[in-house]
What does this fold into?
Amino acid sequence: MRWIESPDGFCRFCFLAKKKNGNAVYRNRCRRILRPLFFGMVPSIKKPVWAMVVVTDSSEEMTAERLRESAFKIFRKMEWNGADVGEG
It folds into this structure.
């Protein structure tokens, strides 16, 4: 994940899953899982960011649970409050 502080004061997220990692169904599924997780964290972000989240695992390796765990690791790394919400 790469991010910069938001110049306009709004959070923006880009979810990128490359073609070489899986077919369109897999790439869209990754986005559908990640989108609500990240947009749900927006109220707890102290400084708005523009972030690009890149899914690097192939469809054979990735599960929905593993994708969620990776997202929560990112939240903890960025020290976003409420990163433990929804885990479990």
Notes: The chain has a mean pLDDT of 85.
